[in-house]
Amino acid sequence: METEKRRREILNILHKASRPLTGTELAQNFNVSRQVIVQDIAILRASGEEILASLQGYLIPAKQQENRVRVVVACRHTREQIEDELGIVVDFGGRALDVIVEHPVYGELRGNLMIASRYDLKLFLESLDKTAANPLLALTGGIHLHTLEAPGQTVMEEITAALHKAGYLVK
């Protein structure tokens, strides 16, 4: 398959996908290596396509639905408290879309999380443990931002109240 045609088809598949797709899945679909897909995604992103890379795979962010509410919250906690913090979000039916820190040299650093369930959270924590990678909060003494999404204002208020009660929100 011609390179440009494959890239257009990758976009088409990602637009139709109901879940993130891994590089391996896409590679198998086109009978190419995962590295070819990684390069294709990089080129598509450089050309202005909004493709997110998350632990679960690649996805094109859905337009925010009218009834969904998004807020950015400032948090502070330790690495050991990540499970509790993000667990609060998903237990109330919310999603942690990303984590953002302000680095003194690089400026804003953002990591796509797309954590919407305890299972997503489990995979994220296992990935941190398996790779021995430091979470972004390690760069800023625990201070970071999250973009959170909830199915309505009431749910978002419950999430932020629970995060506040647990002592994770920075005012």
Looking at this protein, list some descriptive labels.
2 domains, Histidine-containing Protein, Chain: A, Arc Repressor Mutant, subunit A, 6 strands, single chain, two-stranded antiparallel sheet, alpha+beta, 171 residues
Write up what this structure looks like.
This protein is of the alpha+beta class and 171 residues long. The chain folds into two domains: 3-59, Orthogonal Bundle (Arc Repressor Mutant, subunit A); 69-165, 3H domain (Histidine-containing Protein, Chain: A). Helices cover 42% and strands 23% of the residues. The protein contains six helices and six strands, in the order αααβββαββαβα. It has helices at 3-16, 23-30, 34-46, 82-91, 118-131, 153-165; strands spanning 52-54, 57-59, 69-76, 95-103, 107-115, 143-150. Strands 3-6-4-5 form a four-stranded antiparallel sheet. The protein has a two-stranded antiparallel sheet with strand order 1-2. A hairpin with a 3-residue loop joins strand 4 (95-103) and strand 5 (107-115). Helix 2 crosses helix 3 (34-46) and helix 4 (82-91) packs antiparallel against helix 5. The chain is globular and about 55 Å long. The model has no long low-confidence stretch (mean pLDDT 91).
